[in-house]
Amino acid sequence: MSAGRRVERHALVVGVRPERREEYLELHRDVWPQVEQTLREANVTNYSIFIVGDTLFAYYEYVGEDHAADMARIAEDPVTREWWTHTDPCQVRIVEERDPGALWQPLDEIWHLP
After folding, report:
1. DSSP for residue 89
2. Which residues pair with 11 in a beta bridge?
3. Of 4, 64, 80, 114, which has the maximum CB count within 10 A?
4. How far apart are CA 75 and CA 84, in angstroms?
5. Do the Cβ atoms of 90 and 16 come closer than 8 Å?
6. What tens digit of pLDDT does each residue of 76-114 get?
């Protein structure tokens, strides 16, 4: 990241199907290296997924210049698409659909301590 570049913080939420919770957790104990590499190449950093009950929260920082284009690049990656065939069935949308068709829905930042 170059000096002075703005970091965008992104947070998302989705539910995990109770009957597939352990499967989802197991998948994330050993995330495929190419999935991680694709995220890095798309300017995603500091990515975390948290769980409480059957709710998943994701947080990542974006350090690129065109978030939409980089997210599209991730979605076009064949290995990531294959990864999603394993993870998506474990998930269920639990909030109002703001990002059409997406399971993970964005959260609004209301406070940040820099």
Report:
1. G
2. 59
3. 80
4. 10
5. yes
6. 999 999 999 999 999 999 999 999 999 999 999 999 999
